[in-house]
Design goal:
heterotrimer; A: 307 residues; alpha/beta; 2 domains; 7-stranded mixed β-sheet; 14 strands; 29% helix; 28% strand; C: mainly alpha; Arc Repressor Mutant, subunit A; 3-stranded antiparallel β-sheet
Chain lengths: 307, 310, 130
């Protein structure tokens, strides 16, 4: 694993970040988190949670209306050469051929362009470099857009619904390519999706957005360990009295099944089970009032941004 | 907002300008070819007017004087109207520049997200807009400049073949540096509108309307002097007698007996240059370029406000 | 070279699947000391899982002394696991065979034997005692 890059320990840090669009409500509000470098993070949330807005701001495409955002130790847009962004609609120039699109990548990113890598991704999809972008299907365009993003050899990849219109085979293969790139170069990846299962295997870090705020942030293992699904005879109050936070509970016969954020061990008499990532995410989305949880590595340092 | 307003930090290594220019050329290949074809076609028309086209009209002038030009049904009359085709083409061309700037150059890219694609390569929005404006501007200046020079050449050589009226005067006073500055203003206005509107069709409509306003105030409608106080462009028509003397046109029309009686063997006619030409051209050019600069500054301001720059 | 298959529905943690499949390959003699395991890059390219998951599995195998990472070269098999094939002809197997024959003639069915066997197995090899 080559580690020649001088990647900072924090790839992305937001503090009180907010974005408002005109008279509409806020897309993001008072968002604070940090994404350690080298993580592959899922950005999860319901539609309209502000995922695309956050990614576009990190890519330097939109200006925040409040708060600060630091990307690779600089302001957003300061290190455009080291950040790749794949927008949700996968924009490409329809009038260019695939080969021309890739040479555009080479011309606009001369310092870091990896032509072989970009060409290989296109080749794996059986695409003819001479075909025009306008003649490609949605999935094929996604492949070319990913080739453009990976060919740039970014230190931070911001991917907005990267796999949405790919067939299962291409999805598996391109996710593999992405993971291989991350394994080899230590790339930090932040990718959004509202299909949690799609990301569970590939990601080791989670940012859950809901209502414009960060609801959960941290290593997936840490977040899963911090929560437990308990089943047994008792009431939610029995659990809260012990200091646990009940995120969600439902009746199970004479007792209940609840997803709790533990504070110390759970009393004997409760059957415990580790939740799946999907259960954890869904429980938090269904319970907007549940307090947010950010693991220490994901919590921004106070007054971190003094530059 | 401290981290955001920070722009003095070490700049990211930017791609060399040539790559960005090549990319812009490649993206607007079709428009480039259309523009080159337009310039070549219009230049061809001007060259034809300058050479072979002028001959027949010149013969009519030589034989019957200015009367020959106004009475001629056919070639001389056609020459006079064809003389203005090039002007129409230049006008259409400059409208096309404004529409192109509003639609395909800027708004379509913002609408489809390809502008944002460019900004996530190693190109900042500011550099992107600069290239998007500079490359077409270079082609507009080169193309329109060449055509204007040729046209001026044509006026000097064959302005005498034009039928008098408001048309030659309007052409005379509009043809010059301002002819080049006007489409530049169109380009800047189109870009500004494209950035503000961000959708292709409305941007096309607004750019067209904006350039129509520019066009309406140009040339003979130059507001600072008023349409009816437009300076005269004096013409002098003379008949040449057998002795070589230049006398007033005897108004014989095509009456050969009359011409013989006055011993007229030829005619000459010219438009006298107006002392007003340069002040008017330079003032108009200055105003157009100043408006262009304002539009460009507003466009960059708008872009900076929207996107994080760096 | 091993190619790992990741079963997303098995409920078994992904890194555990890699550990188990590697051990299985060792038991079956498909991997022998000196063989190189695929690099993390190769594994994630084929399986689309997180690179850290592979590294975690390899660390686990290393901790158990089964493999060793050689800097810049890769991860190599160090030890082998007793294989079922080697045990096939041992006296232990013969005794078990004789016992099974006696059980059958005593009228026990397959499921009875299975339950018997599992109970004895649990008694002598308590769970979590790897």
């Amino acid at each position: 694993m080559s580690s020649t890059s001088t990647a900072p320990a924090v790839a992305l840090e937001a503090s009180g970040l907010g974005k408002r669009y005109g008279r509409q409500g806020a897309a993001l509000e008072d968002c604070s988190f940090r994404l350690p470098a080298g993580r592959i993070s899922a950005l999860v949330g319901p539609n309209g949670a502000g995922k695309s807005t956050l990614l576009a701001m990190a890519a330097g495409l939109l200006r925040p209306t409040s708060g600060t955002l630091t990307v690779l130790d600089g302001a957003p847009g300061e290190h455009r050469d080291r950040v790749a962004h794949l927008a949700q609609n996968k924009p490409l120039y329809p009038q260019l051929t695939i080969a021309e699109t890739l040479s555009m990548g080479a011309e606009l990113n001369p310092a870091r362009w990896d032509a072989a890598c970009a060409a290989r991704i296109v080749e794996q999809g059986g695409l003819d470099p001479k075909s025009r972008i306008r003649s490609l299907s949605g999935g094929q365009r996604t492949r070319v857009a990913l080739a453009l993003a990976l060919g740039k050899r970014p230190e931070l990849m911001l991917l907005d619904e990267p796999m949405a219109d790919l067939d299962p085979l291409a999805r598996h293969e391109l996710m593999g390519t992405l993971m291989a790139d991350a394994a080899e170069h230590g790339t930090t990846v932040l990718m959004s999706s509202h299909i949690v299962a799609e990301l569970a295997d590939a990601c080791d870090h989670l940012l859950l957005l809901g209502g414009g705020r960060v609801r959960l942030g941290g290593g997936i293992d840490d977040l899963l360990t911090a929560h437990t699904v308990v089943t047994g005879r008792g009431t939610p109050e029995d659990l809260t009295r012990r200091g646990h936070t009940v995120i969600e509970s439902r009746t199970a016969g004479r007792g209940l099944t609840a997803l709790v954020r533990r504070d110390g061990p759970v009393d004997e008499g409760w059957a415990t089970e580790e939740p799946s990532l999907e259960e954890l995410v869904l429980a938090h989305l269904r319970a907007p009032a549940a307090p947010a949880l950010l693991t220490p590595s994901t919590t921004p340092a106070p007054q971190a941004v003094t530059a | 907002m401290s981290a955001l307003t920070l722009e003095a930090a070490a700049p990211a290594p930017a791609p060399p300008r040539s790559g960005l220019v090549r990319t812009v050329l490649r993206l607007h290949r079709a428009a480039l070819w259309i523009w080159l074809a337009f310039v070549a076609g219009t230049a061809g028309l001007l060259l034809w007017l300058l050479g072979p086209g002028a001959d027949t009209a010149q013969r009519a002038l030589d034989t019957y004087g200015y009367s020959g030009l106004i009475m001629a049904m056919g070639s001389a009359d056609e020459y006079s109207s064809r003389f203005y085709y090039a002007d129409t083409l230049l006008t259409v061309g400059s409208f096309a520049v404004a529409l192109f700037a509003g639609g395909p150059l800027i708004a379509r890219e913002l609408e489809t997200g390809t502008a944002q694609l460019a900004w996530t390569q190693s190109v900042s929005p500011v550099r992107w807009l600069a290239a998007k404006l500079a490359v077409p501007a270079a082609f507009v200046v080169a193309g329109t400049g060449l055509l204007t020079l040729l046209y001026h050449q044509l006026w000097t050589a064959h302005g005498n073949l034009l039928i008098a009226g408001i048309q030659p005067r309007a052409l005379y006073f509009s043809l010059g540096p301002a002819t080049v500055a006007a489409p530049l203003l169109g380009l800047a206005l189109g870009a500004l509108i494209g950035l503000a509107v961000r959708r292709t069709l409305p941007a096309l409509a607004f750019s067209g309307f904006a350039y129509f306003l520019v066009y309406a105030f140009r040339g003979n409608h130059w507001p600072f002097q008023g349409r009816y106080q437009a300076p005269e462009l004096h013409s002098r028509s003379r008949a040449i007698t057998a002795t070589g003397a230049r006398v007033a046109d005897p108004d014989c029309y095509d009456d050969k007996a009359c011409l013989a009686k006055h011993h007229v063997v030829g005619f000459s006619r010219e438009y006298l240059p107006s002392s007003d030409y340069w002040p008017r051209q330079l003032l108009e050019t200055g105003v157009l370029l100043a408006l262009t600069a304002v539009a460009v500054a507003l466009a960059f301001g708008l872009l900076r406000r929207r996107a994080a720059t760096g | 070279m091993v190619e790992y298959r990741i079963d997303r529905r098995s409920g078994v943690a992904t890194y555990v699947q890699i550990v188990q499949q590697t051990k299985q390959a060792l038991r079956l003699g498909l991997l022998e000391p000196g063989d190189r395991l695929p690099t993390a890059r190769e594994v994630v390219e084929a399986t689309a899982i997180n690179p850290n998951t592979v590294l975690k599995a390899y660390r686990e195998l290393e901790r158990e002394g089964l493999v060793e990472a050689r800097r810049g070269l890769g991860t190599f098999v160090r030890a082998t696991l007793g294989t079922g094939a080697q045990a096939a002809d041992t006296p232990l197997r013969a005794e078990l065979g004789a016992w099974a024959a006696r059980a059958r003639s005593a009228g026990l069915g397959r499921e009875d034997v299975d339950a018997f066997f599992t109970a004895v197995l649990d008694e002598h090899f308590p769970k979590g005692d790897q």
